[in-house]
Each structure stands twice: as C-alpha cells, then as structure tokens.
Design brief:
Layout lengths: L1 E2 L4 H7 L9 H18 L11 H22 L5 H30 L2 H15 L3 H8 L15 H24 L4 H22 L1 H6 L5 H11 L5 E2 L2 H21 L12 H13 L5 H6 L2 H8 L1 H19 L5 H27 L9 H22 L9 H7 L14 E2 L8 H6 L3 E4 L8 E5 L1 H17 L2 E7 L13 H21 L3 E5 L2 H6 L22 H17 L3 E5 L9 H11 L9 H22 L2 E3 L2 H4 L8 E2 L2 E2 L9 H5 L3 H10 L3
Helix pairs in contact: 1-3, 2-3, 2-14, 2-15, 3-7, 3-10, 3-12, 4-5, 4-15, 4-16, 4-17, 5-6, 5-17, 6-7, 8-10, 10-12, 11-12, 15-16, 18-24, 20-28, 23-25
Length: 680
C-alpha cells in the first residue's frame, strides 16, 4: 500500500519546469478552507467552526513552500532573492490595495479611537506583525474584533513570518546538516504543538495569534513537502484517505464553536484533514473530482482576494448599518465579497503574478520597501495624532472627549490588568497599592475592592472620603469580582482572580481594615455575559441574556461576607450602574454629527430586567450579613427612562464604565456611609 516513489515536485523541476506542478485538488481545498471562513464571519448559522479554514490554509502554505524550496534546492536552483520576489508578487498587490481602500473609508467614517486602533493595525499589517499587535490589544478595554477591518491580517502575518524564517533555516541546515532537516522539523513541530496546548489555559489570546504557537500547523505541511510520509500506491487507499480528510475538516467546521478551546488539540482535526487530502492525491476519486469541479477550483483561485476583502466588507457593513448582519445583509456581503474578490484577482493579483506588470531587477523590492514604509509611516502618524480628532467639528470633539475621561484609578500603578500589568498580587498583599480619600490619614480606614467598575466608581468614594477625613486603599483587577473562590467563565480567569482576591483578603487581615466597599460588574457575572452586540451594533430590541448563573456568585458572596463579618469588617455592597449597550461617546458624537436623536439609552424596563437578578443576589446577602447597600441607579434613571448623558455631556466613557467626571458627581451617595463609619 505504501511506497517511497520519487517526489513529484522534484520530478517536475528536473523535467525543466520552474514552478510546482498544478494540482486542481489543492485549489479545491483552498475553496474548502475559505468558504467556511466567510460564512462564519458573516454569521451564517451552522458554521460555528468556520474559523478553522485558516488552519487548512496554514497546512497548504507549509506544503507548497517546502515543496518549492526543497525541489529547487535539490537541483541547485533555489534563490532567496527569487523566492522573496515571488512572495512579494503574490502577497503585496492585493493586500496593499485592500489596506489603502480600508484606510480611505476609515479616515472619513471612524471616530478618533476607532481610527487610532485601525492605524495601529495598518502599521503592524504593513510590517507583517499584526498578529503581535492584535495579541497586545486583546485587553479589557479593547474596542472589539467587530471594529477592526484588518483583524484578519493576523494569519497573513503568521505566514509571512514563516516565509521569512523557513527559507533561511533550510539554507542553514542544507549547508551544515542536510541529514538533520527532518529531525529538526519534527522537533520544532512537537515543541510548537506542545506550547500551543500549554498556553491555552494561561494565555489563550497569545496561543491564537502568535507564530510560535501556530507554526506547527505549517510544519505539518512541511513534513509532507519533505516527502517523509510514503506515498499511497493503492487507489482505494488514496480515496479513503481523502474522504477521511474531508470528514475531519467537516467535523471541525460544523461542530466547533467560538467556545472551543483553540488551537491546541482541537486544531489537529482541520490540520490533519488538510494533510490527508494533500497527501492522498486522489484526483480520480469522488473527493478528487469534487475538489476539481470548476466552481471549486475558481473559488480556490480567488481565495486569497476573497480572504482579504470579505472581512473589511463585513466590518464596514455592520458599521454603516449600526447593527449586526440580518439574513438579507449576510447574503449581500457574501455576494459583494465574491464580486470584489473576482475583480481583485483579475485586475490586481494576476497582472502582478503573471508578469504583466513589469517590475524587474531591483525595482520590485524597492517599490515593496517604499510601499511598506509609506503605509506603516502613515499609520504611525495617525497614531501619534491620537486618531486625528481634528477631522471632527469642535462640538463633536467635545462630546467624544468623554472617551478619555477615565479615572486615574485605571492607571498601571493602581489597576491590575488581565495581562498582569499593574500591581502584582504580592504588591496588593503588602499594601503597595493606590491610596484614596484623605491622604494625610495614615489609616487605612477603608478599602475599595473590585473590578474595572470599581475603578470607574472610585472617584465618588474618593471625594466622599476626603470630605469626611477618611483615608483608604484601592485594589481592583480587570474582570475579577471581589469574591472568594468564585468560578468564572474560563479556568485561567478563575485562577488569576482567585490569586488576586486571596491577596486582597490577606491585606484586609494584615492591615485590620474595618470598612470594605465591594464593587463589580454584577450583571455580567450572574448572567455570564455582557449585553448582546454591546458597542456600535447594540440593539435594544434584542432581549438581554438573562440566563441564570447566579448560584456560584451568590455562594461566593455569602462566603466572603460571612468571613468578613466574622473578622469584624463592615461591608458596603455597591450596586452596578445601568449598562448603556452603546459606546456612549461614539454614539452621541455620531448623533451630533448626523443630527439624529441623542436618546441612546435602553428603555428603563430593559435595564430593570437586566439588573433584576444581580440586585436580588446582593440584597439577599446584604440582609443576611448586615451589609450596607449603595445604589447608584436612581442617579442615572428617573421614573420614565435612564440617561446616557447630562446636559449634553456623556456620563459613560464606553458602554458600562462611567466617566471620572460622572463618578466625582456621585460622591454624595457615599457620604452617609462614612458617617456610619465614624462609629465603627
């Protein structure tokens, strides 16, 4: 069944060809890869794992690049300059055409913060480092994937980093240790795969974006390209192997969801599926004929342009319609993506790849360097300008300025981010944290403990404490409710938050702190979700998620309050502010710009329904353990509706965090607490 025949790549090259022999099934496999990606991004039901198409592309790329390089090396024809020139012709024209188009639209459409993120991504994408940039940006206050037209370039960055490093490694090994090429590749594959598994619980964002955790997928293709696996002599065996490959990819596409731990072990399915199809070479069987169908081959041929253009089309369509894609809009963006991809392939890709655009000698690399420099430089200039706010009228800029009205308690020296920036657990335990209130009072008389919503409300407590002559400490961590041993959505968050909260508890005991304010994004924790489509695509007609996950939160809250009461600590539970759903400064600035209504807050009934469970949990625990409650809701809502702004000034810096100015105006809510504290 198995035989080690001559590598067909080398055979083709030996017969005088200077390119890889054409395989229609690989173009068909490209179609199998790109279509689920497009359908997944468009939100078509049933394609929850469509993102695995990227992994199929990785295997294809590894195979083709290795086959070409090793084939040319075997005949002494390989040229590093020639290789990179081919990559430039293949990748640059359509990529930079897409980025230029996106830049023009973003310049005229985006608000400053949105344009700032876009400019960063454009600079990074130009330098083929966008995967690193997006890994850095995936923090708590990131604007979100749906607002990033160049997010999809992360996979191109991974491939380009591979294209830069792999040929150099092959040249080095070919000269110094030609017999060790296969062992080196196998070791690298195993190390990357092990790292990919290990990082999932620690830093899944890095595991998704960064090359060291993804290169094993390309190396699967490399192993095939090196001819390490004997070819199948049996035609039946080829057909069976190809069918298995198609099934593996299908399982990943139709069974996986965004909640699947990925890449890690899960990525083996699409990668091995692609490897099976590539290795089978089953051109005459059912799978081979399916992949070689003209429509499949054509989609494969335009797959690069389709990948480049579909995501920006989806992002900008959502942006200009102000909501998620409806079934009709899904069809529109899919058809538009196909049309634009065909045009890009015909008018941009092919002329450069086929040599119709004559850029020879040093001219091609010179133009490439110039293109990279201009694009990256333009992005850097926009970043330095803070997103070019001067594009906006002065009154619109004044409204949008609330985006930056952030409490100083968010600063790195005060607030602990999910990426470990800010005070460490050891800092918190020893009391090396930010002070608030009367700084001349050595106290500490109280502690503010919570998550980012605690940082948002802290200026109110700060003002009330200073007026009353009380000095306190501040300890807050992104996405960590102030609860002992509460299970959170991911194991990584649970461990991270448990360690932080243990440090806070040690601080309370060590410093004998008598009064503790506990603040958090309570609705998020009891429902395990934010509002649906929170941000630019929020729609209050879509009911909020009211799934009840309150039991572990209530249990942890009871345990925490019981321990604090036993230690003689008085607790103040602070209810959450109403969520707005919209990014308030952006929404109000756009309303001003377009002359539409500034009444963007969800109905009072919507907010009451969303907050009911969290309020019930807090009220019940407060009554049982004699804790005080501070409720800011009446400061934002009257009997008719809630308010996102006051006198035209936004009260929120995003969808659920109030501005520092709004917080300072709420100091009166805590005045009575400190009057009671005098008797503690």
């Amino acid at each position: 069944m198995f035989s080690r025949g001559e590598n067909p790549i080398r055979s083709s090259l030996r017969n005088g060809e200077n390119h890889l022999p054409y395989r229609a099934d690989i173009d068909g496999l490209r179609a199998i890869a790109i279509l689920p990606v497009v359908l997944f991004h468009a939100g078509v039901p049933g394609f929850g794992g469509g993102f695995v198409g990227v992994d199929v592309f990785f295997v294809i790329s590894g195979y083709l690049m290795c086959s070409l390089i090793t084939g040319e090396m075997a005949l002494g024809k390989f040229s590093l300059a020639g290789f990179y020139q081919r990559r430039i012709r293949r990748i640059f024209p359509a990529l930079f055409a897409m980025m230029l188009t996106c830049a023009v639209v973003a310049w005229f459409a985006f608000m400053p913060q949105e344009l700032l993120y876009f400019a960063r991504s454009m600079t990074a994408a130009s330098l083929f480092a966008s995967n690193i940039q997006f890994a850095k940006e995936a923090a708590y206050f990131d604007i979100g994937a749906q607002m990033k037209p160049l997010l999809h370039t992360w996979s191109l960055a991974v491939e380009e980093q591979f294209y830069i490093g792999f040929p150099l490694l092959m040249i080095l090994l070919q000269r110094l240790a030609p017999r060790q090429i296969m062992p080196v590749m196998l070791v690298a594959l195993a190390a990357s795969f092990a790292a990919s598994i290990g990082v999932l619980n620690q830093n899944p964002t890095a595991g998704f974006y960064l090359s060291q955790y993804r290169v094993w997928e390309l190396l699967i293709g490399v192993i095939l390209g090196l001819g390490a696996i004997p070819e199948l002599r049996s035609e039946t065996g080829r057909q069976v192997l190809a069918a298995i490959g198609l099934v593996l990819i299908g399982i990943a596409v139709f069974v996986f969801t965004e909640k699947t731990a990925f890449p890690g072990f899960a990525a083996l399915l699409p990668c091995l599926g692609a490897a099976c199809i590539i290795h089978a070479r089953a051109g005459n069987g059912i799978v081979g004929r399916l992949l070689a169908l003209r429509p499949m081959v054509f989609v494969g041929l335009i797959s690069y342009s389709l990948y480049l253009w579909h995501w920006p089309i989806i992002v900008f369509t959502r942006y200009f319609t102000d909501h998620e894609l409806t079934p009709a809009l899904r069809l529109v963006v899919i058809l538009a993506s196909l049309v634009v991809a065909v045009a890009s392939w015909h008018f941009v890709e092919r002329p450069f790849r086929k040599g119709r655009v004559l850029l020879t000698g040093r001219l091609l690399p010179a133009i490439a360097v110039l293109l990279v420099g201009v694009t990256a430089g333009a992005g850097a200039l926009v970043v330095m300008s803070g997103g070019a706010p001067g594009r906006l009228p002065a009154d619109v800029r004044a409204i949008y300025a609330a985006t930056y009205d952030r409490s100083h308690f968010y600063q790195a020296g005060c607030f602990s981010e999910s990426d470990h920036k800010g005070p460490s657990d050891a800092d918190v335990e020893s009391g090396r944290v930010c002070a608030l209130g009367d700084l001349s009072d050595l106290g500490p008389d109280f502690l503010v403990w919570g998550d980012s919503h605690a940082a948002a409300m802290a200026p109110a407590i700060d003002a009330a404490a200073a007026a009353g002559g009380f000095g306190g400490m501040f300890a807050a961590h992104a996405s960590c409710p102030p609860l002992n041993d509460v299970p959170l959505a991911t194991k990584g968050d649970t461990r991270r938050c448990a360690a932080f909260n243990d440090s806070v508890r040690d601080l309370i005991r060590e410093k004998h702190i008598p009064l503790v304010f506990m603040l958090a994004y309570w609705p998020k924790y009891v429902h395990q979700s934010e509002l649906p489509n929170q941000g630019d695509y929020f729609d209050a007609s879509i009911p909020p998620n009211l799934a009840d996950y309150s039991k572990p939160v209530a249990t942890a809250l009871d345990n925490t309050l019981a321990q604090l009461k036993q230690e003689g600590v008085k607790v103040v539970l602070v209810m959450d502010v109403p969520e707005m759903g919209h990014f308030v400064p952006e929404a109000l600035a756009k309303a001003k710009l377009e002359g539409t209504s500034p009444d963007i807050a969800p109905p009072l009934s919507y907010i009451a329904e969303r907050q009911a469970l969290a309020r019930s949990v807090l009220e019940k625990s407060a009554a049982e353990y004699d804790a005080m409650i501070v409720d800011p809701l009446p400061s934002f809502c009257d009997n008719a509706r809630c308010h996102a702004s006051r006198a035209g000034v936004p009260l929120y810096m995003d969808a659920d965090h109030i501005t520092a100015s709004a917080a300072k105006s709420l100091g009166y809510l805590f005045t009575s607490v400190f009057k009671v504290a005098q008797n503690i």
